[in-house]
């Protein structure tokens, strides 16, 4: 797999260190990788406007002009595939990562042992994006990337497949459709199957998804869903 990775950090020494660590990972895994470095968010966005083909972003959070969080939100508006990893010296921004479906949150100084597994997981996620499910709709059969599905909702004799871009409907049962899904999805209610990676918050009674939608959680299901979420993370 050929990858394009961006390192965005206003600290030149940090950029150099991360690029060296990425290079070591590349050498071990024999990936084809093109890396670019940026001193601020706006420099990255200038390139990104012309070439929206980055696969992995290693972002500092506190940068002059535009923060890494703001940068990630800008990119995520039109790109659900890119793998976003925050590399920062501050813990207090952890919850912001959920808003942009960040892959991971690494605290500086970042060791090789911490970064390499995250990069491995990013590659797995990118490969996973190539998997699709087939959905029969009134407009014909549509292939939907598994990675784009937020959750699936039962609506009488139909289902609504809510994705990061739009909602599709089909005359098929929820159980039958769920057979096409994998272990990264979980049935939290008799009428809902959710993508674990898009869960933003979970309580004893409901699940909040990355897009803000709230989904009821069946009684007695919290512990099982929480365990599945921890395993996924």
Description:
- This protein has seven helices and 15 strands.
- Strand 4 (83-88), helix 4 and strand 5 (104-107) form a beta-alpha-beta unit.
- With 233 residues, the chain is of the alpha/beta class.
- The model has no long low-confidence stretch (mean pLDDT 89).
- The radius of gyration is 19 Å and the shape is globular.
User: What is the gyration radius calculated from CA atoms?
Assistant: 19 Å
Helix count, per DSSP?
7
E-strand count: 15
- Kindly report the oligomeric state of this protein: single chain
Strand proportion? 25-35%
Give the secondary structure arrangement, pairings included.
Elements: E1 2-8, H1 12-29, E2 32-38, H2 41-50, E3 56-59, H3 68-76, E4 83-88, H4 96-99, E5 104-107, H5 112-128, E6 132-137, E7 140-145, E8 149-155, E9 158-163, E10 167-170, H6 174-178, E11 185-189, E12 192-195, E13 199-202, E14 206-209, E15 214-216, H7 222-232
Parallel strand pairs: 1-2, 1-3, 3-4, 4-5
Antiparallel strand pairs: 6-7, 8-9, 8-12, 9-10, 11-12, 13-14, 14-15
Q: Notable features of this structure?
A:
233 residues, alpha/beta, five-stranded parallel beta sheet, five-stranded antiparallel beta sheet, 7 helices, 15 strands, 32% helix, 33% strand
Please summarize what this structure is.
This protein is an alpha/beta fold and 233 residues long. It is 32% helix and 33% strand.
């Amino acid at each position: 797999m050929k990858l394009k990775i961006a390192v965005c950090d206003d600290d030149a020494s940090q950029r150099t260190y991360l690029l060296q660590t990425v290079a070591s990972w590349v050498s071990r895994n024999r990936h084809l990788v093109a890396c670019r470095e940026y001193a601020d968010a706006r420099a990255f966005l200038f390139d990104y406007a012309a070439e929206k083909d980055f696969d992995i972003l290693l972002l500092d959070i506190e940068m002059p002009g535009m923060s890494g969080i703001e940068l990630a939100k800008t990119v995520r508006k039109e790109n659900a595939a890119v793998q976003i990893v925050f590399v920062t010296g501050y813990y207090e921004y952890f919850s912001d990562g959920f808003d942009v479906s960040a892959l991971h949150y690494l605290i500086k100084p970042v060791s090789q042992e911490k970064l390499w597994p995250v990069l491995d997981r990013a590659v797995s996620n990118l490969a996973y994006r190539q998997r699709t499910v087939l959905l029969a709709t009134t407009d014909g059969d549509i292939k939907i990337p598994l990675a784009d599905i937020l959750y699936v909702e039962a609506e009488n004799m139909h289902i609504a497949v809510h994705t990061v871009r739009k909602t599709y409907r089909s005359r098929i049962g929820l159980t039958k459709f769920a057979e096409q899904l994998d272990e990264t999805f979980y049935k939290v209610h008799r009428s809902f199957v959710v993508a674990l990676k898009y869960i933003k918050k979970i309580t004893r009674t409901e699940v909040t998804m990355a897009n803000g939608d709230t989904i009821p959680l069946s009684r007695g299901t919290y512990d099982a869903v929480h365990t599945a979420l921890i395993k996924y993370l």
